Input
Amino acid sequence: MKILKFGGSSVAHPESIERVTQIINSYLSSGEKFGVVVSALGGLTDVLEQMGSMAELGNDGYKPLIDVFFQRHTAIIQQLIPEEKQAKVTKEIDKRTKELTNILQGVYLIKELTPRTKDYLLSFGERCSAFLLSKVLWYQGVNASMLDAREVLRADNTFGKGKIKVKESYQLIQEYFKETDELKVITGFIASTARGETITLGRGGSDYTASLFGAALGCSVIEIWTDVAGVMTADPNKVKKALPVKHLSYQEALEMSHFGAKVIYPATVIPAMEKNIPLYIKSTFAPEEVGTVVSEHAEPDEHPIKGISSISDVSLIMIQGGALVGAVASHTYRLFRVLANYQVNIILITQGSSEHNICFAVKPEDVDTAKKAIEEEFSLEIQSRYIDPLIIEPEISILAVIGDNMKHRPGISARLFQSLGKNGVNVAVTSQGSSERNISVAINRKDEVKALNAVHEAFFLSDTYSVNLYIVGVGLIGGTLLSQIRENAGFLHKNQHLEINVVGLANSKRMVFDEEGIVLENWREHLNESESKMDIRKFVAKMKELNLRNSIFVDNTAAPEITEFYEEILDASISISTPNKFAPSGLFRSYQDLKYLAYERGVKFMYETNVGAGLPVITTISDLVSSGDRILKIQGVLSGSLSYIFNTFQRGEASFSDIVLEAQQKGFTEPDPREDLCGSDVARKLTILARESGVALERENIRIDPILSPNCIEAQSVEAFFEELKKEDERFEQMRESLTSEGKALRYIATLAGDQAFLSLAEVGTESDFYHLSGSDNMIVFTTERYKERPLVIKGPGAGAEVTAAGVLAEIIRIAYHLS
Output
């Protein structure tokens, strides 16, 4: 024999009930013998509770809800009962609705809803749904009738959460089923006291009813039919990539249900476990799927844990003081005795080995009661300051990783805490049971969803991982970066096991966010249609509000005002990748602070593209320094724009001003080319190289030999600058002709020797490696202790949107590896 239980979502509407009858008929056609337990129509228990609360407050707004109750049931009658039989069935529902109305009227008049009355009120949901399902089946030709569980289930008088008298109830169930061959449609959720009063069984009561009947009748299987195909590795409403769990042991199921898994409830597991009856969690919307099987010994799988659960809202209470040390458990006994006397349920507990404090978690509604109880019990110790005033931390969530195999797999705790730490999730309390089946952590409630996703990815998606990208600046570099992310998505997923989700975009006018990921095929339309005006302060606030795991902020601008928010971004445990040079080349103290903050928060602050676009310059310095080498001298053509300008000018095919204009139009220079020609941009790059080499250089300490005349430098606008530059064309042409005749060329070279740094427009001959540069090539020459006789040379394109964007993308991938 089997017991099939159908939840509220499975009988919410006429269409749902039709699916249920199809499942039942398929079992009948195969010769199965079974009973059916049913919940109230989906959502109606909440409606009943709402009506009771309103009536108790003297609010007659409950009356229209009675019509809702009646109409939900009559809609089923009208669609699923033969027309000639509808009046008879409707009459019974009408009779029950009138009884419900009278009860509510009484509550309304006396403005009191006792626990006993509330239980009777809530029972109408199951009594009506079971009656209706039995009638629908009867008129389909099934020999079915309703069984009111109050006839056979006996409970104490703890209204709201009745405790079943198991031995008596089992005997009554067994005797009842000896006398019937009908298919019984049983009311879930309710039982009766010894005095015949109606009592409910609390949260998950209908599932519990099914388990009790299954255990009493010695069933081979108990099936819980709901709206999901079994237990998931995490709550799919919070973790979109949650996976189905095929097998759970009874103990694993108990742990997961205790820590918030809503598909299965603790009380349901106990009767099945005592009789060793497998529980199947199945979906009425996908009946062909096996779902989750809960049994004595779950089949192992490739994952070290079975699931991650969380309790969203608890409060931590800490009691501490010298009186607790060496008290031989007397204070612990007093603490938990008084909490038990006040019926305060403890969700989690931990005690430090110093015995100086005890910390435990309770539901928010129990905080005041717990506080009062503890302060009364320990009033003398508190007055004498042997025990400190209680510390209460509200808005806490508890996250638990669960699995029987955890005790056989080292490194579970390390993976858990590493995934939390890399995402800036602080753990307030941790606890692990001696069974090693569960590791629980208490975290800030605002971090719950991020923590769940981060931990889930660490344990279940370790072969693939994802990062969430916020991009400010979608011009040449930013737009090219988005194109590269889109074009390489398949390659990254297949070969790097990486998914890059762009969740925020901004240009100078607008910003847009989409937590699920912006569709990159039409990102421009998304951004242009956004009604949110760009405000970097609001952009950063939104990133922090979303609080997504594995977040990276990409700044593709050259705006110093954006860099002012780097500290806040890093402090929120969001990594940064940027070609913006203002922060790394600003004040040395600020540079140090950002680097240290990134280290402290476990995130990355990366700016490889600051110096050589896509060239691995900063990475090379880091490798040299970290491996113990000492950098003696750096010389380089560090500006791809200036390299392009002077390499092109050397050919003598256009005037100097025309070449500068062409470089600007191709995106090789900054929007104002004077940033390049005045040496400001190169000075920033040399500052960064010096600092990465270990030299505490400030940018103003770099000597800069000018290229331009004061008139060019002081021009009021970019347009005015070009007018002045045209006047310089003859001077530059004379220089070019003179150097060409000598077999030389102009190169703008940055030099760092010790702590001396300078920039100069140098004349180089054919013997110099710098002479042979072409296009927008950069070249950096490192003389170190290891590379003293033959310096280390890095050479390649140092400007252009393609190579810079590629450098940023490479950095994003490196950050992703760090976060994974």
